[in-house]
Amino acid sequence: MLTYKNLTIIGTSHIAVQSIREVGNVIMLQKPDVVALELDADRFLGLMHKKKRKITLKDIMATGVKGFFFNLIAAWAEKKLGKMVGTSPGDEMKTAVKAAAEIKAEVALIDRHISETIKSLFRQITWREKFRFIWDILSSPFAGRKKKMAFDLTKVPDNAFIEKIVRMVKKRYPSVYKALIQERNEIMAKHLYNLMQNKGSVVAVVGAGHEEGIISLLKAMQK
After folding, report:
1. Range 69-84 burial, b when 16+ CB lie within 10 A, else e
2. Is the pTM higher than 0.85?
3. How many Cβ atoms from other residues are within 10 Å of residue 103's Cβ?
4. Which positions ≥6 away from 22 have C-beta within 8 Å?
5. How far is CA 29 from CA 4, 25, 80, 102, 162, in A?
């Protein structure tokens, strides 16, 4: 968790029990004017509605066939991991919305639409990165035999671990880093800057790994 002026930004793991508790506690304690979420309108509606709508041709066309299946596989993997720890992906966002309603705070959606992110990713990703990804997947079992890494899914990874992963992604998959992290940080920072200027105190709930980048961009905007 980082604080900058009238903003508190919480980095979460979307399936960690620790994140759910921290988000609820911070919002109830600080009672901000605005709770900002790393979501777009469609993801917000999908998360808050219990009844899942059917996938349409429009959904597939929005991201392209490759993008659609990429999103589907990522959602499936996150759901599987969530089951392992007894949570559902996005429970920390639901907790934030409920806490915001309880203290009568405004809810703001600060991320760009998922279809734009996926389109950007597939527009930029290179064949070299694709081959690297395949190699990393195929070689990971062998690497795992040499060195095991203990990882508690119920908790948010520490900052050192997150920074190491972000640096690795930036080096090995620069297009992935740009589309999934850098570009979204820029968009979320702009939204948060406007909220901080016009809405009072803000608590933002974003995925772990975005906090430092967003804060750096906000500081640059103040110059």
Report:
1. eebeeeeeeeeebbee
2. no
3. 13
4. 1, 10, 12, 92, 156
5. 17, 6, 32, 12, 26
208: number of Cβ within 10 Å: 20
> Tens digit of pLDDT for each residue in 98-144?
999 999 999 999 999 888 888 888 888 888 887 887 777 767 654 44
Contact 174, 129 (CB under 8 A): yes
What's the token pair of residue 137?
Answer: 């997947």
| Residue 143, token pair as written in the block | 């690497």
Nearby residues of 79 by Cβ (< 8 Å), 6 or more positions away: 88, 89
Provide the phi-psi class of 64: left if phi over 0, else alpha when psi is between -120 and 50, else beta.
Answer: left
Burial label for 138, CB within 10 Å (0-12, 13-18, 19+), is exposed
Range with the lowest mean pLDDT among 49-58, 111-120, 162-171, 196-205?
49-58
Domain ranges for the chain: 2-222
Query: Which two tokens mark 166?
Result: 């972000």
Cα dihedral 142→143→148→152 (10° resolution): -100
Cβ atoms of residues 189 and 218 within 8 Å: yes
Pairing of strands 7-12, 34-37: unpaired
CB 191 within 8 Å of CB 110: yes
Residue 70's contacts (CB-CB under 8 Å, 6 or more residues apart) are: 63, 118, 121, 122
Predicted confidence (pLDDT) at residue 186 exceeds the cutoff of 90: yes
